[in-house]
Amino acid sequence: MSIEIKLDNRVASVELLEQNENLLKVKVDDKIYDVDLMHNDEGVFSIIHEGRSYNIELVQSEKPKHYSAYTLYNTYDVEVIDAESRYLRNRGVGGLIGSENTVSSPMPGKVVKIPVSVGDPVRKGDTVVIISAMKMESEYKAPIDGVVSKINVSEQETIDANQVLIEIE
Predict the structure, then answer these.
(1) What residues pair up with 104 in beta bridges, in sequence order?
(2) In terms of domains, do 158 and 110 share one?
(3) Which residue stretches of the chain are H helix?
């Protein structure tokens, strides 16, 4: 299973391919890395890659799944974007809404209702689509104020995980 990691303004797809204790094979975007990862102290990690050692300290921020990463010379803002955080962002929960202008479902399901049309003005937090997944209905909210520019699905349509459902300008 892959997750996305947002490092400042860059978003990378990260997937753990293999693990044998602290030896990891990790795929970042389309490149595979063999690393030795040790968790030294609370939030301090040592990574060895191709004979070079890197130390990183991760400090949890006030928002869930947001961190400050400190290296010897740089500091980075880090956000872990997994299925749970995408779900919370699309539902308008937990302050995880960023500058994205799309609404997507983190899991497969079926479109129950689309209470908006192309051209409708929406406010951040307005329900724009209702999805049924795992025998539960979930309302997905507009992440921004704007106008519905595109609806990529129809009611009763079966959808895939991470499929873009609604676009807002």
Answers:
(1) 164
(2) yes
(3) 83-91
The CA-to-CA distance between both ends of the chain, in Å, stands at: 31
151: CB partners within 8 A, 6+ apart: 114, 116, 117, 118, 165, 166, 167
Choose from 38-47, 92-101, 108-117 the range with maximum mean pLDDT. Answer: 108-117
Q: What is the pLDDT of residues 76-89, one digit of tens each?
A: 999 888 776 666 66
What distance in Å separates the CA atoms of residue 60 and residue 68, rounded to the nearest whole number? 7
* Same-domain check for residues 75 and 119: no
Q: Do residue 77 and residue 106 come from a single domain?
A: no
- Which tokens hold the place of 4? 């996305």
| Token representation of residue 33 | 């890395």
In a domain, 87, yes or no: no
The band of 18, judged by pLDDT with boundaries at 50, 70 and 90, is: very high
- If asked whether residues 104 and 161 sit together in one domain, one would say yes
- Domain limits for position 59: 2-81
Spatial separation of the C-alpha atoms in residues 133 and 6, rounded to whole Å = 27
Nearest to 47 by CA among 57, 37, 33: 37
Q: How far is CA 100 from CA 97, 107, 133, 163, in A?
A: 7, 18, 23, 14
Instruction: Tell me, yes or no, whether 91 lies in a domain.
Output: no
